[in-house]
Amino acid sequence: MSKPVVTRFAPSPTGFLHIGGGRTALFNWLYARHTGGKMLLRIEDTDRERSTEAAIGAIIDGLKWLGLDWEGETVFQFARAPRHREVVEEMLAAGKAYRCYCTPAELDAMREKARAEGRSPRYDGTWRDRDPSEAPPGVKPAIRIKAPLEGETVIEDQVQGRVVIPNKDLDDLVLLRSDGNPTYMLSVVVDDHDMGVTHIIRGDDHLTNAARQMIIYAAMGWDVPIMAHIPLIHGPDGAKLSKRHGALGVDAYRAMGYLPEAMRNYLVRLGWGHGDEEIMSTEQMVEWFDIIDVGRSASRFDFAKLESLNGHYIRTMDDARLLALFIETLPHLPGGSVMAELLDQAKIAQLAMALPGLKERAKTLVELKDGAAFIFAIRPLVPDEKAAAILDADARALLGRLHELLSETAWTIEATEAAVKAFAEAEGLKLGKVAQPLRAALTGRSTSPGIFDVLMTLGREESLGRIADQAV
């Protein structure tokens, strides 16, 4: 009987949760869910100079926003350093590792010599078989593994296929530095083994690391997890996704107004697909996803496609869920913190009323926020440039007459619509010629949801007040 699947997401907390990391986490999460297994979270904080509490917080916040949960407590790699050192002691005792007393200057000279001879710079095994009694005084040794000198290391990768690396290209990697601190290579292997990880799903930039890590597994006599190295995400120009392509952190996509559901759907399609399905629920992703179906070639990040998909999710999402997401995200949106401070039960009720009209026009929550700005506007409104152009002397006079009529009209969508249409007819105008100045007075803009929806959202008192402010 095969073991239950255990995947892990293991970011380094040296910055925000990169969007590529978000996709790696998603693939681990989906595969665990698909197989009835579990995903673990490990923070690889061994780089003490670059690891920060703020970055750890950003990673956890990003995962939670994406809706990706994990089993059990978060594991912090640095705290496990004593266990990593214990494993090295076992390797030393078994003759699988050795103490290396090379100084930094000697290592530099070794690398320079290799380059001069056209070889790749690597450790030449100087201390591999020397007697420790020859150790120079006062030099603290690093501990290196005894890598195989002949043959090849084979990775049967679930995505990349069979990868063969000649052992002559793998040197005796350092397990413990001379200051006694474990290296990343060692820590990852020990942690994956101790955490019971069965499947390692990570970026293909770790493929060469996999061969080196397999040497550690072999030295300890441990089972090697099944590996799947997924291709990296590229920018629209085909180059590896980087800062010059724009926003990279998951938190930045939230601030741009993307929905977590849309991000999950978009990210899962970067390198994996199910037939021609473009839009899929999380339940469908879980049902269909298999790591062996991930392609080998890099995917290109396409903002236009993401925005289009996000717009679909906004239009089709349940209003109650969309309203809750909007309110939750508002403080993160540009200029949204001011609106968030003004939120009360009355404003929430107005948002709920306006949402069906607002969401038809919005591709992001930023656009939804901009569309809802009229609800938060404080009298007297300052019209924008286009609205100000609409509100000329004739329009203001017309608003004065319309204000008088609406003051005596029952405040229902049917009654206000009938009254405005009758007013336009009596004035000898098309409805648009009345609706445009009315919209400019009510919202301070030239575009908005349906004008009668705006009247209902604002209510009688606020609507009449705004019209009066602009009327003569």
UniProtKB/TrEMBL annotation:
Residues 344-469 form the Aminoacyl-tRNA synthetase class I anticodon-binding domain. A motif ('HIGH' region) lies at residues 11-21. Residues 117-140 are annotated as: Disordered. Its EC number is 6.1.1.17. GO terms for molecular function: ATP binding; glutamate-tRNA ligase activity; tRNA binding; zinc ion binding. PANTHER family: GLUTAMATE--TRNA LIGASE, GLUTAMATE--TRNA LIGASE, MITOCHONDRIAL-RELATED. This is Glutamate--tRNA ligase. It comes from Kaistia soli DSM 19436. The lineage of its organism: Bacteria, Pseudomonadati, Pseudomonadota, Alphaproteobacteria, Hyphomicrobiales.
